[in-house]
C-alpha cells in the first residue's frame, strides 16, 4: 500500500509589480484586500500545518496561535517544540520533510516569507501556488522568491476576480 503524498501549497499576495512586501521588516499586510484575507483563512483552515519563515511568524503570531505551526529559523539548533502546536526548525540541521511525515501532516500551507517559499521551490515540494494579485504598485520591494532554482512548470487551474477594484486570485498546479 502506497503512502499518501503530502501536499504542499503556497499562498501569497503580491502587488501588480510582483512584491509581497514594501520593505524587509514590514510587519503589516494592510495593503491586501478583505477578499484576499478571506481566501487566506480558507486555505489555512484546509491545512494540517502552516509553514512560515520567522519574520512571517512574527507578523501573524497572535492570529495563528491556535493553529499547528512550523517556523523556520536559525535561532534553534535543530527542532524546538514550543508547545503541542508550535515547532521551530533550523533547516540546516533538520530534515523538514521527515519531520512533517513523522507528525503525519498531509496538507502543508506555506505562508511565506521568502525563506519558506525558496526552500519549498528549491526542494521541489510545491504542488500548488495560490497567488492573489492586488491592484497596487510599490515600485520597489521584496519578491516572493529570490534564489536561483531549476525551472519548474505549473498549469493555471483557475482564476477569479475577487472584488470590483480588480483583485485577482490565481491557482497554479505543478505539471
Mean pLDDT figure: 93
**CATH domain class:** Alpha Beta
Shape: globular
Report the total helices: 4
Query: How much is the radius of gyration in Å?
Result: 16 Å
- What is the assigned CATH homologous superfamily? Dihydrofolate Reductase, subunit A
Descriptive account of the structure:
The protein is of the alpha/beta class and 175 residues long. It has one domain: Dihydrofolate Reductase, subunit A (3-Layer(aba) Sandwich). Helices cover 21% and strands 34% of the residues. It has four helices and eleven strands. The chain has a nine-stranded mixed sheet with strand order 5-6-4-3-7-1-8-11-10, with helices on both faces. A hairpin with a 4-residue loop joins strand 5 (79-81) and strand 6. The longest helix has 13 residues, at 34-46. The two termini are 25 Å apart. The model has no long low-confidence stretch (mean pLDDT 93).
Task: Identify the notable features of this structure and list them briefly.
single chain, 175 residues, alpha/beta, Dihydrofolate Reductase, subunit A, 9-stranded mixed beta sheet, two-stranded antiparallel ribbon, 4 helices, 11 strands
